Amino acid sequence: MWHISNEYSGECHCPLCQAAFRKWLKNKYHHIDAINHAWWTSFWSHTYSSFDQIESPSSLGDKGLHGLNLDWKRFVTDQTTDFMRHEIQAIRTSGAIQPTTVNFMEDYTGLNYYKLAEYVDFVSWDSYPAWHQQQDIMTAYDTGMQHDLMRSMKHKPFLLMESCPASPNWQAVSKIKKPGLLTNASLQAVAHGSNSVQFFQIRQGRGGFEKFHGAVIDHYGGEDTRIFREVTKTGIILEHLSKIAESRVESPVAILYDMESRWAMEDARGPRNQGLFYHETALKSYQAFRRNGLNVDIINMEQPLDSYQIIAAPMLYMFRAGIEEKLKRFVQNGGILIMTYWSGIVNETDLCHLGGTPHGLSDVLGLHSEEIDGLWDGEVNHFLPVNGNEPHLKESYACRHLCDLVRLQGAVPLMEYADNFYKGYPALTVHKYGSGHAYYICADAEADFYHDFYQRIITAQQIRPILDRIPEGIEVSSRVHKDFEYVFVQNYTDSTIDICLPDHIEILSGNYNGTISGYTTIIFQRKST
Asked: What phi, psi does 223 have (nearest 5°)?
């Protein structure tokens, strides 16, 4: 396999790239009047009379045009992709036939990785979680979401190219991993669809920026270290799992997580300029699906939707690639859509939609947004259940940051706000459309709300979880291979936890006593259903 370059990043504002950017814009917009409209340049007198006047957003250019900023990011991705394709072409011209890959980084917003993924045979990435900074199960969920993002780009196994056997030296604190966590973290990648576990680095260097970065062999140089022994143990386990490389991850649910929409939303001014928490909001949906025992795909707006039973669309600020019509068909054909506040606000050049939002989906959701309230840090409202609500929600849940005030046009309120002048306004709604249902979450609710709400939707849809009754601190994943399913159960706590697994065969040791020790992975095999 060819590794095509390393961790692409950065951008160039030289004269050659300025000229290339103008050519890119001409190919996209054809006429300067089209770009003036798309970027709404008449505001603050930014109107262009020629493409030659356009400079990239930098200290020498203009950073006040959101459409310009957005197109520049798209251009940087296209330039990087073009560079990568030339590198691939160079090795192909020389006769190389091996597959290609390039390693991506965690939650990196400088590039739209989906574009680069189109031109390599396998996606790979470098995983460096900050373990022991919070509850490790929370870090595991965040890392799992990144694994699933990488897998979902090509809907095939990916490669874990880099991970640290000890602790990275460039994080705020170099926290060493507790015994068992190295193996857990490695096997989590496999559980989520990786067909490799690789470490950086094999041996610590004596100098340079990463001389204290964790390695399999440290400056001591011996094999009689805790890290070396755990790497060896992990390797032995992986040898037993070689057949899993032929398996796949199947997900009944997906989360729409779109980089272009994120770029536009985080560049906009308002409704909250001290944190919109897009990633954190998407992660709440992810945690809710995982805590309820489901594999999850992380997709963008260009991917097909028809294989899923539930699609969550958190803060889908920009609608592009015909997503309105795709979601409409999805619900009409029996799918469950869960959309949140601050969705369908702008088009692909960041121009605000007229006629009500979420744009093009008001009839599906049975409502439209009228106002959105930005809350100060520390300011809290609450969701209260409406009597007799269909999912039978009974608890009160805190919400923060953003509260959407909606006008119902056929939707039924399930929960309502508890405080402020909009006390009694809808906070969670449902609307039947065609053969499916569309839910709308009006505010940034706490994680427990997502867990409880999603649990009821999953049960109502009769989606079979990988395992029932998953204890706190446990993550469960699965991969399917012909007639068998491999179930990974991982404990991210210090405690031994009871977990019931009837009719499962433990494939590593053949023994299972009804418990799982702290920082341990057990892998079961069962017949596929």
From this structure: -95, -5
